[in-house]
């Protein structure tokens, strides 16, 4: 039984990796989302605070504020091909938001200041409590917020630079089954809850070569988020309660850096095409270390290999101006998984993904603008056996994501 308990404890905290790999949220602007989430080389609105702070100084409006949100409807299917067993994640809706505000004191000023609040990482995954992998995961919920005050400076009519300080804060909860039954045959359960925080930065350069061509380079730094005094408690029969003391834990997780090169070109006055290439520094997330405040023979500090790899995301989008009020967009992107073979888990059933996007904008008035987007994301079917837990399965994930934002310019 001690071996079973140790296997459970080792696996219980591995799912904290949801802070990092496989659940990067790419929904930081509705205009940009409609164009395959491109925006580093194409500065359109206040979302440039995220995509390229250097482009903020090129915004036409003196001041503006925008608020938006998306609705993520994901679905993951698990298949054990040897037995034909199938399980589906429970239906739920993720709701990442964005809030952007930009201010310029005078029209001739070269300085712009701004504030951005957004959710770059987060997800919720819930399987039925009695599914085959319940001792690995029943439910996990993650929310993160990045708060980014920013300054941007227009060096000349072609070049802009900008930088933002990032304060990251997060909150997560986790439930897992424990392979010990009480007198009624009900399995035990482990519960985790923790808060995390960390710091980083976002810097960008924007170059407007002319009316047709613009280029951007943006770097969002790695953010080390630290969990202190997270709580771990367990519901188990009294006879084994000493193996599972209620305690606290601490850990440090490395959210990856992102380097993006973006190019935008107008083939005709009404048509703009944008290409972004992201290089994601997932390699920084090589292991997960858990330090418990209280240890027992079966509850020991954990060092678990993750061995993520750096990957590219290639994004392509187009925007066409129909009238002075209506604009439409299309896009696509290919998102490679950072999770190597042998390290796939049901908490992060990540695979290479392809997305198709669309969007539109409507100018209600000169000051009020409405933007919407729609994404369809299809993950490749992936079969893997986790080297640490021995859990085998085939996973298939897809999601639909509508979104909406409203902007007010002064």
Please characterize this protein's 3D structure:
Helices cover 5% and strands 56% of the residues. It has 410 residues and is mostly beta strands. It has one domain: Outer membrane protein transport protein (OMPP1/FadL/TodX) (Porin), CATH 2.40.160. It has a 14-stranded antiparallel barrel. Strand 19 and strand 20 (368-379) form a beta hairpin. The protein is elongated and about 75 Å long. 46% of the residues are buried. The model is unreliable at 1-22 (pLDDT under 50).
What layout of secondary structure does this protein have?
Layout: H1 2-12, H2 30-34, H3 48-51, E1 63-70, E2 73-80, E3 85-88, E4 97-103, E5 111-118, E6 122-126, E7 139-154, E8 159-181, E9 187-208, E10 213-220, E11 223-235, E12 247-255, E13 258-268, E14 271-280, E15 287-292, E16 302-305, E17 311-321, E18 326-335, E19 353-363, E20 368-379, E21 382-385, E22 392-409
Quickly list its features.
mainly beta, Porin, 410 residues, 22 strands, disordered N terminus
Helix count, per DSSP? 3
Compute the number of strand runs.
22
Q: CATH architecture, please?
A: Beta Barrel
Give me the Rg, rounded: 23 Å
Helix content: under 10%
Shape: elongated
Strand content: over 45%
Number of domains: 1
According to CATH, what is the topology?
Answer: Porin
User: What would CATH call the homologous superfamily?
Assistant: Outer membrane protein transport protein (OMPP1/FadL/TodX)
Summarize the helix and strand pattern as letters. HHHEEEEEEEEEEEEEEEEEEEEEE
Low-confidence stretches: 1-22
Through-space gap between termini: 67 Å
CATH class: Mainly Beta
The overall pLDDT average reads 88
Structural class: mainly beta
Q: Characterize the biggest β-sheet.
A: 14 strands, antiparallel, barrel
Sequence of strands across the biggest β-sheet:
1-4-5-7-8-9-10-13-14-17-18-19-20-22
């Amino acid at each position: 039984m001690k071996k079973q308990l140790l296997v459970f404890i080792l696996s219980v905290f591995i799912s904290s990796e949801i802070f990092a790999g496989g659940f990067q949220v790419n929904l930081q602007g509705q205009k940009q989302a409609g164009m395959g989430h491109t925006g580093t080389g194409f500065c359109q609105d206040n979302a440039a605070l995220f995509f390229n702070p250097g482009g903020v100084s090129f915004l036409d409006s003196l001041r503006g504020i925008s608020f938006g949100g998306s609705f993520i409807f994901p679905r993951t299917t698990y298949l054990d091909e040897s037995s034909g067993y199938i399980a589906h994640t429970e239906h739920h809706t993720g709701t990442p938001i964005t809030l952007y505000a930009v201010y310029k004191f005078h029209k001739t000023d070269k300085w712009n200041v701004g504030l951005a609040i957004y959710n770059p990482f987060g997800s919720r995954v819930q399987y039925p409590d009695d599914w085959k992998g319940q001792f690995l995961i029943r439910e996990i919920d993650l929310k993160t917020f990045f708060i980014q005050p920013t300054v941007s400076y227009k060096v000349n009519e072609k070049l802009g630079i900008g930088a933002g300080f990032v304060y990251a804060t997060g909150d997560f909860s986790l439930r897992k089954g424990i392979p010990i039954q009480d007198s009624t045959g009900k399995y035990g359960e482990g519960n985790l809850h923790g808060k995390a925080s960390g710091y980083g930065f976002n810097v960008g350069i924007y170059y407007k070569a002319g009316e047709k061509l613009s280029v951007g380079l943006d770097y969002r730094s790695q953010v080390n988020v630290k969990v202190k005094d997270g709580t771990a408690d367990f519901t188990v029969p009294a006879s084994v309660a000493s193996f599972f003391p209620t305690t606290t834990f601490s850990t440090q997780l490395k959210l990856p850096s992102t380097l993006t090169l973006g190019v935008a070109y107008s083939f005709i006055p009404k048509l703009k095409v944008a290409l972004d290439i992201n290089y994601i520094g997932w390699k920084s997330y090589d292991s997960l270390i858990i330090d418990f405040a209280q240890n027992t023979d079966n509850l020991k500090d954990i060092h678990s290999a993750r061995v993520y790899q750096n990957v590219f995301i290639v994004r392509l989008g187009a925007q066409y101006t129909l009238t002075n009020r209506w604009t439409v967009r299309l896009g696509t992107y290919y998102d490679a998984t950072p999770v190597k073979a042998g390290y796939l888990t049901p908490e992060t059933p990540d695979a290479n993904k392809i997305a198709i996007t669309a969007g539109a904008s409507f100018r209600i008035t000169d000051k009020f603008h409405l933007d919407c987007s729609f994404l369809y994301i299809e993950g490749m079917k992936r079969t893997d056996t986790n080297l640490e837990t021995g859990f085998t399965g085939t996973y298939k994930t897809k999601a639909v994501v509508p979104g909406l934002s409203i902007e007010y310019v002064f």
